Amino acid sequence: xxxxxxxxxxxxxxxxxxxxxxxxxxxxxxxxxxxxxxxxxxxxxxxxxxxxxxxxxxxxxxxxxxxxxxxxxxxxxxxxxxxxxxxxxxxxxxxxxxxxxxxxxxxxxxxxxxxxxxxxxxxxxxxxxxxxxxxxxxxxxxxxxxxxxxxxxxxxxxxxxxxxxxxxxxxxxxxxxxxxxxxxxxxxxxxxxxxxxxxxxxxxxxxxxxxxxxxxxxxxxxxxxxxxxxxxxxxxxxxxxxxxxxxxxxxxxxxxxxxxxxxxxxxxxxxxxxxxxxxxxxxxxxxxxxxxxxxxxxxxxxxxxxxxxxxxxxxxxxxxxxxxxxxxxxxxxxxxxxxxxxxxxxxxxxxxxxxxxxxxxxxxxxxxxxxxxxxxxxxxxxxxxxxxxxxxxxxxxxx
Length: 399
Ligand code: ZN
Prior knowledge:
It is a single chain. The longest helix has 25 residues, at 15-39. This protein folds into 3 domains: 5-224, Rossmann fold (3-Layer(aba) Sandwich), CATH 3.40.50; 229-319, Rossmann fold, CATH 3.40.50; 344-392, N-terminal domain of TfIIb (Single Sheet). Helix content is 31%, strand content 23%. α9 links the parallel β9 and β10. The chain has helices spanning 5-11, 15-39, 65-78, 107-110, 112-121, 134-144, 175-178, 240-244, 256-268, 286-291, 301-304, 326-340, 343-348; strands at residues 52-57, 83-87, 98-101, 128-131, 150-153, 166-171, 201-205, 220-232, 250-255, 273-278, 296-300, 315-324, 359-361, 366-369, 374-379, 382-383, 391-392. The radius of gyration is 23 Å and the shape is globular. Strands 3-4-2-5-1-6-7-8-12-11-9-10 form a 12-stranded mixed sheet, with helices on both faces. The protein starts with a helix and ends in a 7-residue tail after the last strand. It is an alpha/beta fold. It binds zinc ion. Zinc ion binds at residues 351, 353-354, 356, 369, 371-372.
């Protein structure tokens, strides 16, 4: 298996790391000063009219972040909220100030992270937008989707100009990603681990339960991978087990970001498979795929979105989803309840059908759309903005 230079570099301690260590300390100090400057009002923050949840990773190679965002979108939607995702992660040279990403967007333009998010979040009718600045992207999104009542920001660990109502940081605790424990440029961390204590929640993968001296244990929550299964890209009903019991040649490919975790998983499943990590993602070409001497090609879903146009029926895609534990779910709902206690926030919510304004009935705990004659309930402090969950007002009921 090929290992990229960066992975080797991040795991080691060499004289070069010692030379770069002062630069790491300097970077940590600059982030501390920047954070303090915003905290004490030297710089002003901008705030969205609706709550914003920031989800970011403390490592440069955070692999669970996107999957956690997909879970969050599912969780918020099933609790009656209407989320939207914004991000500034895009390939260099992306020109547009802000634009919507859908699963048919060009990966070369929008990048694999945004495409992966759109591919999954759109299933929950949740729009995904990217652009140059998270402040502008969100405002532009809200002009087109005024019914959205919560934003999820896919990055912005150090973008303190954007006020976050809730900050969730993801930590891949696998030593491989955690590396030598240093901040950039001497290690793979984007800030000192003590920065995690400033977040509302630090999410670790359940398989890596261990204590961290640097992090307040009350802030640690766990997520687990659920329902890992291989699905044939063209014949979703085929059973993977039946195929692998024959004498088929199996070949697994993965981009460097996911290679370690994917190949570890294959070893755990005891599959006789040749493995190849792709150092340069532009290698995911038809010519390369055709040249593979394999009957079955195994790939992670995050990598599959990079080569949708060249996938053939030999491809089996590992589908996985992440589920956060109940403690995180309870914490999220409690925090959001606090936010929606603010009647100003209830005033700006609009009807998901006609996008018109709503009348807040405090005693009835309902938000009424006069035009559609629908009453949206506020349950346990959370407005349920779903047509299915709304009460149709009888003709005799006055608004
Ligand atoms: Zn309406």
